[in-house]
Amino acid sequence: MPLTREQLNAILYETFPGTALKDMRQIGVARYALVLSDGEQLSLQLYNTAAEASNAAAALSKLRAEIDLPIPLLHASDTNGALVGQPYLLTSHVDGDPLGAVLPRMSDEQLYVVGRRLGEVIGRIHRIAIDGYGNVAGDAALLDDEQAYIHQRVEQNAELCVRLGLLSTEAADEVQQWFAHNFVPVSRTSCLLHGNLGLRTILLRTTAGGWQLSGLIDWERALGWSPAWEHAVFLDAIDGPRFFGLRVGYGTAYDEQTRRAYEQVREHVLLPYRMLLALQRMHETYQAGEYAESARYGNALLNRVRALIPM
Fold first, then answer.
1. How high is the mean pLDDT of the chain?
2. DSSP H or E run through 229
3. Positions in the chain whose pLDDT score sits under 70
4. Which stretches within the chain are classed as H helix?
5. Phi and psi (nearest 5°) for 78?
6. Residues 114-160 pLDDT 10s
7. Burial level of 66, CB count in 10 A (0-12/13-18/19+)?
């Protein structure tokens, strides 16, 4: 249910006493662009659960010092939804349109330029160390070993696929055995990841110089893990020939920032993360009613497992 003007004013009063809402615009079902009486512009993001809001707030708090990156500055949060009945984050305004919306107006060269900037930004974000593996809001629950963490995720996702009838018990065992025998962590360090880079979370705006990256939003899936997971998620979201320039620009700029091969966009490093992502996407797309996509992910996963591709 949309928030009323009274609810929006109540949120603003909690953080900026003495100011009031001058204008507002709802963006989708869960985001608001706000203009205060003094002219300041803010963004309000609503969340379905306290866990999502807490995770986004924790990630943006860790990024507070990165003032030169296109990332929202966190002003306030109510992760339990006590004030208006729904968890929210109040941040600086991030202007722009989602990549998916402006894609038809972009040339391959423009996609390459945006990809390079995105690779630079994500490389900066990955410099922030996290003391363990898992959601950044759950410091007490973070695992200190990547092998244990990835096996936990494989087991949880495989069990859900079995319950939904997407995998047989035997196939789920095959997947888990593949990871047990083939996955070897390449690094002992964990860094901050956005966790959900894609056509909806990357904002762009057009200027006299062309399209520019203007913001990264929706931080509810942020986590501490290997850069390879970030790469796998993003490359899956931009699969297809239309995104060739974006992929090349992103990989080239990211790789220029680190000499550590295990952090770079390298297919042999990404393989186990791509396989885990396929397992996760199986049940996500199925539950979203995208049955053909669910089957595609399942076939890709089992073909790789049964080919026993060496790491």
1. 93
2. helix 227-237
3. 139-140, 308-311
4. 5-15, 50-62, 99-102, 108-125, 146-163, 169-182, 227-237, 244-256, 267-287, 291-307
5. -130, 85
6. 999 999 999 999 999 999 999 998 766 789 899 999 999 999 999 99
7. middle
